[in-house]
Amino acid sequence: MLSSCGSGVSGAGQTPDAVVQDLPIAYVKRDILFDAAGNLVSQDLRLPMAFHPGAHLILRDAASPSAIETNITDELFDADALYDVKDLNVSSDGKRLVFALRAPEIENAEIQPTWNIWEYQIGTKILQRIIQSDLVAEQGEDTSPAYLPDGRIVFSSTRQATNKSILLDEGKPQYSGLDEDRRVAASVLHVMNRDGTDSHQISFNQSHDIDPEVMQDGKIVFTRWDNASNRNGMHLYRVNPDGRHLEILYGNHSHDTGTTASGTNDAVIQFTRPREMPDGKVLTLTRGMVSRNMSGVLTLIDVQNFTENHQKVNDSFATTESAQLPLTPTDVTNDGSISKGGYYAGAYPLFDGSNRLLVSWSLCRLQGIDSNNQPLLLACSDENLADSSLKEAAPLYGIWMLNLENNTLLPVITGDEGFIYQDVVSLQPKNSPTFIPNGQAGIDLEQSLVDDNLGVLHIRSVYDFDGEDLSPKGISQLADPLQTTADQRPARFLRLIKAVSIPDRELVQLNDSAFGRSRGQLMREILGYTPIEPDGSVTVKIPANVPFSLSILDKNGARMTQLHRNWLQLKPGEQRECHGCHTRNSELPHGRNDAELASINVGATINGAPFPNTNPALIADAGETMAQTKARIKGLPALTVDIIYEDEWTDESLSTKNASFSYQYSDLTTPLPITASCLSQWAANCRISINYEANIQPIWQLPRMILDSDGVTVLADNTCTSCHAEADVLSVAQVPAAQLDLSGTPSIDNPDLLTSYRELFFSDNEQELVDGVLVDRLIPLLDVNGNPVFEVDDNGQLILDEQGNPIPVMVTVGVAPALTVSGARSNSRLFDLFQAGGSHSGWLSDAEKKLITEWLDIGAQTYNNPFDVPQN
């Protein structure tokens, strides 16, 4: 029985709300699942395709316990079949339901059913899978559907259809890439017609994009799992239905705002299940990455005026100081602790002007044993919570009406033991969202860009950090060739980097060694390079439909800023402008066009004149950046595989041009990390893919003899491995120079790595020659006072040698790694050797240094093509 189970919620336990009894609703009723230990089966946001059998889709013709209840989905399967249903949504006219359904497990079958998108038409009672073909339907895990204004459906899927096409262009097989934790295939946004045709990918995240909600303005707001470089946060993003104008909407720095049992507001939360409210705010379920009872806190977010909980957009009209407002009228937590005020598993706002929500809610209950040894259910009062003999009971989720005007909860369906009622929606009609048409080639989009599968990125100034000019002299002086030479400008080039889709283990076996010293960057390819103009601006054509990030480089081609830890994308023909850059810890708006501060680069101040003291042939239009002016006059530049600088801005009548230079792959005498066709002509499918064994190791082994005039006599041998090896050219044992062995043999510590890689990035022991044999150098161990430590027996007595002397404890001497995976500029110890005045000056070519530099900058991986990794 339930004893003393008042909830502290005004209205709880009352009769159903008469005002909503004529309101048809639909919801999912599912079994509560327990694991073998008797614990509730948890729900992990990172596993959107997880299968929890025992669910049914229910339609009620009114929001009343006495209303007729229709089980919509049981007709699909045999009686007592255990299937799963979730992610219920409704059309704006209230006539159609769309949802994800997974058929029952097939016993002993290697290939199991996948999640499919289904539709139920209320008037005709027609239930059908959207994709009719069994073969096509089972090609991906399809979840999280929502209707677009024209009837098409946006959904999350592991199909990755466009990504597979790109992989084929890259010369790889077609497959669905895993998320950045390498657990399951990444589920990203797709759009299809109502008959299942024209299914195509619109987002290209490397982890999941889930829970799309079509807003009244026609844009899609969704939850994105940003997990590049182990970032691991779920934020709100938005995008057009055709995939253009992707941008972060909210939450990058607002994860430590959850409510804890102790009353603080610092629990780590994620932003999930966005729903638009009638006033344009976004209702979310904020919860931990893993929930043991599917619950969270209903949180209202003012995304129109805020980008973070305490960060307003530029020109905000908000009168409050916080974006987030918990809508739960009781003491509810989202830190995983027992929630005294009960549990919320979701909500659906009504668009009838009443300021009410349909919610899935469970009372907080404790369980114990009464004096008759019978099960006892008790409310989560302070007294009961303090009783260690009581344990938390399973939730009892029902459907309730939450009135935000008076903070009351009234029952619609009180719930049944052993079941959860969730994913509730109202069939109440509401205004259809604004229709945003797809961009049309030759009208909205430049035809040539669409034909070549390219987009255009324009950065107004890389010196713009959240509206602050961080250039050393100010960009007006920096852009003036008479005031600043090219060598005085810090930022010289932009590198564009692409994520490499990681295949499933059934296709390629990848152990940790395949990624090298760190898995933080997984695998990366370089799309190419482009110069940064004197004012810090960039305009360049970039491959469309690929996830990319960027790095700002110095004159040597080395990354000079933090890693860019989220994935950008451009659709074919899309031209995207951003103001500048962002520091990782800054909470100022960035990457959201309607929220940022104005750009520091106002562009040309005079129409029809060159920039001050620049090439008179480059006539600017008012407001243009230098990159825009050059692109308008000389054409949009494409990326290049080489780093190339030519001074196009200096007015030679006023000053001498800056010297041109380049770092070109054609100057390498070792294997190239790019195809010959891309070396001669860059195209959208060109990739710089650097594997350590194929591209870096040959640099260490390349013969670098200096010969006498006779062409035979060796005056000096600067081959790296002539000194950095355990034996010299005559096979006589030697201590590797600087205790660094650059040999290309398998490491004795890890055969999956070459000796050189292991020596470069892992700690080692110092070696010495003893009787012509290399051994680890041993030294006496000293205590904290600098006194030697001696060996003792089990009783603590000194152990003596044959001469009666105590035996010192000997230890090896550690050698720190020579390199770090933090980028080239963090490895100045290496590069300084090859600079003028260094001990190895001139031993490596500029092309070789560039190759090593870019490899270190993208993560110093052992492999950047998974299909080059040897398979055992």
Give a short overview.
With 872 residues, the protein is mainly beta.
The appropriate CATH architecture of the largest domain is: 6 Propeller
Distance between the termini: 60 Å
The geometry reads as globular
Helix content: under 10%
Radius of gyration: 32 Å
Main structural class = mainly beta
Low-confidence stretches are 1-8
CATH topology of the largest domain: Neuraminidase
- Describe the biggest sheet? 4 strands, mixed
Mean of residue pLDDT values: 94
Spatial sequence of strands, sheet with the most strands: 1-28-27-29
Number of strands: 52
Number of helices: 12
Overall domain count: 3
The CATH class of the largest domain: Mainly Beta
Specify the CATH homologous superfamily of the largest domain. TolB, C-terminal domain
Give the percentage of residues in beta strands: 25-35%
Explain what this protein looks like in three dimensions.
The chain is mainly beta and about 850 residues long. The protein has 3 domains: about 425 residues, TolB, C-terminal domain (Neuraminidase), CATH 2.120.10.30; about 180 residues, no CATH class; about 180 residues, no CATH class. Helices cover about 10% and strands about 25% of the residues. It contains 12 helices and 52 strands. Strands 1-28-27-29 form a 4-stranded mixed sheet, with no helix packed on it. A 4-stranded antiparallel sheet has the order 5-4-2-32, with no helix packed on it. Strand 48 and strand 49 form a beta hairpin. It starts with a strand and ends in a 15-residue tail after the last helix.
Topology:
Blueprint: E1 2-3, E2 25-31, E3 43-44, E4 55-60, E5 69-71, E6 84-90, E7 96-102, E8 115-121, E9 126-129, H1 134-137, E10 142-147, E11 153-157, H2 161-169, E12 188-192, E13 200-201, E14 209-214, E15 220-226, E16 233-239, E17 247-250, E18 270-276, E19 282-287, E20 290-291, E21 297-301, E22 306-308, E23 311-312, E24 324-326, E25 343-349, E26 356-362, E27 365-369, E28 375-379, H3 382-385, E29 391-392, E30 398-403, E31 408-413, E32 419-426, H4 447-451, E33 454-459, E34 464-465, E35 468-469, H5 475-478, E36 493-499, E37 524-531, E38 538-543, E39 548-553, E40 575-578, E41 609-610, E42 619-620, H6 626-634, E43 643-645, E44 661-663, H7 676-680, H8 692-701, E45 705-707, E46 714-717, H9 720-723, H10 755-761, E47 764-765, E48 767-770, E49 773-776, E50 778-780, E51 810-812, E52 814-815, H11 828-831, H12 846-857
Parallel strand pairs: 1-28, 33-40
Antiparallel strand pairs: 2-4, 2-32, 3-20, 4-5, 6-7, 7-8, 8-9, 10-11, 11-12, 12-13, 14-15, 15-16, 16-17, 18-19, 19-21, 21-24, 22-23, 25-26, 26-30, 27-28, 27-29, 30-31, 33-38, 34-35, 36-37, 36-39, 41-42, 43-44, 45-46, 47-52, 48-49, 50-51
